[in-house]
Amino acid sequence: MIKQYSKLFRRAVFFVFGLCLSFPCAANHSNDPLYKEIIALVDNHGTQTGTYVLEKGEEALLARAWLAEHAVHTIEVQYFIWGTDNIGILAAEALLSAAERGVKVRVIVDDLLIDAPDKSLVALSTHPNVEIKIYNPNMTVGTSLPKKTLNALKNFRGVNQRMHNKTFIVDDVVGITGGRNMADEYFDFDRRYNFRDRDVLLLGPAVLDIKRSFDEYWDHPLAVAIDQLLDKQKNKLTQNNIQEIYRELHQHAADPKNFAPNVRTALQNIPDRFESLIKDIVWTKVQFISDPPGKNKSHFSLEGGGVSTRMLKDALSQAKERVVIQSPYLVLLEDGRKLFKELLERGVSVKINTNSLASTDNLMAYSGYRKHRQKLLGLGVQLYEFRPDAKVAKDLIDRLPEFDGKTPVFAIHAKTMVIDGKTVFIGTFNLDPRSANLNTEVGVLINHPGLAASVEAAIETDMRAENSWDVRKSNPDYHASFSKRSKLLFYRLLPMGKVL
Hints:
By secondary structure, this protein is α+β, with helices and mostly antiparallel strands. It contains 20 helices and 19 strands. The protein has 2 domains: 2-280, Endonuclease, Chain A; 287-499, Endonuclease Chain A (Endonuclease, Chain A, 2-Layer Sandwich), CATH 3.30.870.10. The strands form 3 sheets. A 9-stranded mixed β-sheet has the order 9-4-3-2-5-6-8-1-10, with helices on both faces. Strand 12, helix 15 (334-345) and strand 13 (349-355) form a beta-alpha-beta unit. Helix 4 crosses helix 11 (239-254) and helix 16 (363-379) packs across helix 20 (482-491). The model is unreliable at 1-27 (pLDDT under 50).
């Protein structure tokens, strides 16, 4: 089976890159020495997947930008949030540029938090090489206010069931997954608020598993083509309107104010850095975890679990020594607390780094955590709440000196678990009921002591006193503003546990 899988993968690689060697292509980056080196690396490692953890926002942005510029055949992306801020616009322009040189682009975005103008979505989708679908469109795209209200009343579970997946696939060979959405704050470009997040770049067989998951979503009835949702808007757009939108996107990307010169320089210097990057790539067994579209078969209940929930629970239950976790939201109901209680009773230490009231971007989720914080401490869980002024920001945010005046608030968005210093999970799964039961989630389980130790060390750094408050020693809530503390009192009264 392994030999067959390896052979299948090599055939896929040679098909994708041989296509542009055999036939004229608008973008023949397959002759790029650096791209050839990537293909050689993948082929030489057979069934193993290359992994490289993207700890810094700018590094994660550069990886995506370089891959988009060098795509030969296909780009497929799947995101929960795609903003219309600077990064969101630059990302849209990168996909348009790829499409204009002949790359086939497919995009799936969840409906709930998309804020792109209808005309921009339609204009992009009219390009012959671009297809856009919206997942579970019942609240935003093509939905009037009365219809939104009716949808919420008629199908509360359906409205709350979102696609939380974040994947980026290029030519079926290179992929990225992890916590980052497509907006400024996930790549350290926001001047007021940025996330400490984590992605993983993958080369090889696991990328085919991500592609299979993407195709499953693409073909599912919950993913609806933008043309179908915005048919009226499409009929109103003229070719001049469409070309003007394209020009605006290209002009935005060309403006140094929007795409900083030092970022462009770093992008151009990637080939020079690749030799050292190769040394840091870990080749090992990688298991891709993905919920199916719709998460589970429950139609009315807000529970039901999912593939990702079961697999992560199984991985955690096998811990023998220690578990180190980083999660922006920590809303553990009875089942979750029971699992940690069992681990602690077996002598497994459990350390969790999550947001403090002062750093969190989601007061409702924090209110769910706050209700059970004392119970977790009573079980023996070691809790560390992230400081909004964490000193580690100086090491993680390359652009920090560029921010004028007050340093931006820094908050956790990484979703990571390290088990016994040997196995690491990086993905989209938050420790809350929404990820467990409602939202579809993805991620990778990587078995490699060296990589696990590196990620564990990064989380341990984030737990240091200069970066997080040890909740066993004091109550960090008092470091938050009076306004936040007041709102928290209100949210704690609401019976919203199952949708947090």
